[in-house]
Design brief:
mainly alpha, two-stranded parallel ribbon, two-stranded antiparallel sheet, 9 helices
């Protein structure tokens, strides 16, 4: 989001950045983590989704979804009229709502983060994700946010990997375009 980059004093040529990331990943000798921060000024859910999808499609080794901390001395804390935000009053002062992202949207992003960490960053479901995204036509953000909402409803906090894998299979096998036997085989290769 160009307006967000200006607000946080980051001069970035996004196309050059993407090209450089692709080049680094292609070397296959450097472990690449990309970080996205939710709650920055002027970043609404739609623009965050675009950033998420762009970063995911670069296929970094890990895609971290973090949440802005409103720290002492930062413009968002020192200039609340320009950047009116709600945040936790105890450290680490995580943002809970902004004019651009509601608390419900930030909660959705927390669910998305959980699904992203368990499915992608764990490295355990890479083929599965590739297959499901291709077959369903879902964007990466759609896939992780919807699955994250689903698992938040049923509760997976202390679930075993085997039980979580069963939930992944049950959920994605019901998605339009997904063949259960192919999904099973892809998941077997992942596991």
């Amino acid at each position: 989001n160009a307006k967000t980059l200006v607000a946080v004093s980051r001069k970035t040529d996004v196309n050059l950045l993407k090209s450089n990331i692709r080049s680094i990943i292609a070397l296959r000798n450097i472990h690449v983590h990309l970080d996205l921060i939710a709650g920055l000024p002027y970043e609404d859910l739609e623009s965050f989704q675009e950033s998420f999808n762009t970063a995911y499609l670069l296929q970094p080794h890990a895609l971290q979804l973090g949440f802005l901390k409103i720290l002492f001395g930062t413009p968002m804390r020192e200039d609340p009229e320009r950047y009116p935000s709600m945040y936790k009053l105890q450290p680490p002062y995580e943002v809970t709502a902004t004019p651009w992202l509601s608390s419900a949207e930030l909660t959705l992003l927390h669910y998305t983060e959980d699904a992203l960490n368990r499915l992608y960053n764990s490295g355990r479901f890479r083929r599965t994700l590739q297959y499901v995204i291709k077959q369903t036509g879902a964007t990466p953000f759609e896939l992780f946010s919807k699955f994250g909402e689903f698992t938040a409803r049923i509760g997976v906090k202390n679930i075993s990997l085997d039980d979580y894998t069963a939930i992944v299979f049950q959920y994605f096998s019901k998605q339009s375009g997904v063949d259960q036997s192919v999904l099973r085989d892809v998941m077997a290769c992942d596991r």
